[in-house]
UniProtKB/TrEMBL annotation, chains A, B:
<dbReference type="InterPro" id="IPR036388">
    <property type="entry name" value="WH-like_DNA-bd_sf"/>
</dbReference>
<dbReference type="Pfam" id="PF12802">
    <property type="entry name" value="MarR_2"/>
</dbReference>
<dbReference type="InterPro" id="IPR036390">
    <property type="entry name" value="WH_DNA-bd_sf"/>
</dbReference>
<dbReference type="InterPro" id="IPR000835">
    <property type="entry name" value="HTH_MarR-typ"/>
</dbReference>
<dbReference type="GO" id="GO:0003700">
    <property type="term" value="F:DNA-binding transcription factor activity"/>
</dbReference>
<dbReference type="InterPro" id="IPR039422">
    <property type="entry name" value="MarR/SlyA-like"/>
</dbReference>
<dbReference type="GO" id="GO:0006950">
    <property type="term" value="P:response to stress"/>
</dbReference>
<protein>
    <submittedName>
        <fullName>MarR family transcriptional regulator</fullName>
    </submittedName>
</protein>
<feature type="domain" description="HTH marR-type">
    <location>
        <begin position="9"/>
        <end position="141"/>
    </location>
</feature>
Length: 150, 150
DNA sequence: CCTCATTAGTACGATATCGCACTAAATATA
DNA sequence: TATATTTAGTGCGATATCGTACTAATGAGG
């Protein structure tokens, strides 16, 4: 009788996949019109890490192929959330900046999402999350390196 | 100066999203030809939970829309991994069964993936994962309920 | 029985994702 | 400096995802 009970690693990645799916859906339900969680992710990233980074850097941050990020950024531009300027240091490259509209939208999206996660925050205290984060971050970094090693 | 440092909840879902992305890519790199992680997920689900369930039940398990699951199951059928039989209890419904090929492929996929996660398993012991899982499962269940409450 | 509402699955269309191939610029090497 | 290699971003095509609307079967209430 082969392994009917899979290793905890499969369970882990399975749970993570489902949580991702659920949180994404939950978020997108509360976003205005055509905005997706990927757009939200980009806006958040720009605020957190700082504006003026390149598309490739953002793609790496989210670990998605660069063509995917090209598409996502195109969506953000179309929505008027970001602006793509030439990179003064490298003519092949671009620099991404938030527009004031992008900044506003992001603010309201964070607020929206916060209310959406209210119930969640009641059940899972910040402290509990904070104890969880280091492990997840470590995993992310490890997988990240493993990917480079290909 | 508005919240440049986002709540840990955003960080949490961000990390989970990236880990999902990384693990999925890592897995799919090691799968044969046209097989996707979603197919792998279905096969695993059938082995773990038991065969003979319905498409809708599987869709709910992965928290994806049923039309998505229709498509995924179609792919599995096309690859000869599963078989869709009529549901004797409900003529609208179907029952999903693994083919022997599906069982074989799943076995070898598990083996493949296991070697892929070798390095990961070295850094993150089973014990460590086991302590992590209850929280994640609780989160999944909570978000699950929150979704139903819509 | 006979509506009427609900439910399982699907067809279809829109769009997101992503591999591959390409261009242009930068960098390394001779 | 001239040439080769690497790198940033994009166009294109294939396919995955998913919302909407539909069909057929079930179940509920008369």
């Amino acid at each position: 009788m082969p392994d009917t009970r899979p290793s905890p690693y499969f369970v882990l990645f399975n749970e993570i996949g489902i949580i991702h799916q659920l949180s994404r859906t939950l978020l997108e339900e509360r976003l205005p019109d055509g905005l997706l969680s990927s757009h939200f992710g980009v806006l958040n990233h720009l605020v957190r890490v700082g504006e003026g980074t390149t598309p490739l850097a953002i793609a790496r941050a989210f670990q998605v192929p660069k063509t995917t990020m090209t598409h996502t950024l195109g969506g953000c531009v179309k929505h008027g959330l970001i602006e793509m300027r030439p990179n003064p240091d490298d003519a092949r490259s671009k620099c991404i900046w938030l527009t004031s509209k992008g900044r506003e939208i992001r603010e309201s999206m964070v607020a929206q999402a916060a209310t959406g996660f209210e119930g969640f925050a009641e059940h899972f205290s910040e402290e509990r999350i904070e104890t969880l984060l280091p492990v997840l971050t470590e995993m992310r970094q490890f997988l990240d390196k493993a990917r480079d090693a290909t």
